[in-house]
Specification:
Layout: H1 18-56, H2 74-81, H3 83-114, H4 121-133, H5 136-146, H6 153-160, H7 177-202, H8 206-214, H9 219-230, H10 232-247, H11 251-256, H12 268-278, H13 282-312
Helix pairs in contact: 2-13, 3-7, 3-10, 3-12, 4-7, 7-10, 10-13, 12-13
């Protein structure tokens, strides 16, 4: 239909040719055809797995028993009465509360130092980032050797410095096993936090610091009133992904402590693995998995609700 305004020539929409529409449809179908292998794998190994695991969580699903009766919400009710689940939940919270903030704080401190004009800055950045690209299994085995009670480096150097007088069984002591793993986690993740903070620091205009120096602000005031507020979005990002990753910790605990003495390092994922692949109680294990999903989802929503606005401002 022609649209005509006084004083202007009429404008006609180009006709929609049937061949053009068909050609665009063929192009779209060819794109779907090219994406179909990936979509098929996603549907089978992600969507179907999620749906089937949810179905399993309502059954007493024992791998070795052909009879798999429907039990309704019994697996979820069992979570509330399971002392080992509560213990694993407590250990997971302790691990998260200490590992995530300390990793972020150390990453920010190193980023502030390496953001200065110092000699060998690229070498130091590479050295701090190397643990990030080290395979987690290799790092866990290395730190297991460091913590060895007989010939580990931790005992050797602490005795040389007269910090301890005798060998300490770091990974066999219920009070030291989880803190020892937390130290390893900080060492492994501080390089990633450093790189992300470096990107945030380099995005801060230098004019802000120059104006603060003119007003007589010292290094502490510049850090408090300029650096920390302006890297708040970076901190928010690291906090969210750090909490999600901490709630799913498994590999380092499995390799270094295998649950720890008196379940001192048994986290939710480790307990899930034990129920599913050691006790073969797949129904209860999938219920634990969905409980973990609910916990991560709630904590992520809380962080987004209360911290996102502060980070934006």
């Amino acid at each position: 239909m022609a649209v005509k305004v006084a004083g202007t020539p009429s404008v006609r929409r180009p006709p929609r040719h049937k061949h053009g529409v068909l050609r665009r449809m063929r192009e779209e179908w060819s794109a779907y055809l090219m994406l179909s292998p990936g979509l098929l794998l996603f549907a089978v190994f992600v969507l179907f797995s999620i749906g089937f695991s949810f179905y399993i969580s309502f059954h007493q699903w024992d791998i070795l028993n052909p009879d798999k009766p429907f039990v309704g919400l019994d697996n979820y009710r069992r979570l509330a009465d399971d002392p080992l689940f509560r213990k694993s939940l407590y250990n997971t919270f302790i691990y998260t509360i200490f590992s995530v903030p300390l990793t972020m704080a150390c990453g920010l401190a190193i980023a502030l130092l390496l953001n200065q004009a110092i000699h060998g800055r690229a070498i130091f950045r590479t050295a701090f980032f190397l643990p990030v690209i080290t395979p987690l299994v290799v790092a866990a085995l290395m730190w297991k050797w460091v913590y060895n009670g007989d010939y580990g480096l931790a005992n050797y150097y602490l005795q040389k410095l007269h910090v301890i007088n005798h060998e300490v069984l770091w990974l066999s002591n219920p009070d030291l096993a989880l803190p020892s793993v937390i130290v390893m986690t900080i060492w492994k993740g501080v390089g990633f936090a450093m790189v992300i903070y470096l990107a945030g620091l380099q995005a801060i205009p230098e004019e802000y610091y120059e104006a603060a120096r003119v007003d007589g602000a010292g290094a502490w005031h510049r850090l408090r009133y300029i650096t920390i507020p302006l890297v708040a979005p970076t901190s928010f990002f690291l906090l969210v992904i750090g909490v999600i990753g901490a709630f799913q910790v498994f590999t380092e605990l499995f390799i270094m402590t295998t649950g720890g003495p008196l379940q001192s390092t048994t986290t939710i994922v480790y307990y899930l693995w034990n129920m599913g692949f050691q006790q073969f109680q797949m129904g209860y294990a999938t219920a634990i998995a969905y409980a973990l999903f609910a916990i991560i989802f709630i904590f992520t929503c809380i962080q987004v609700r209360f911290l996102y606005r502060e980070a934006e401002y």
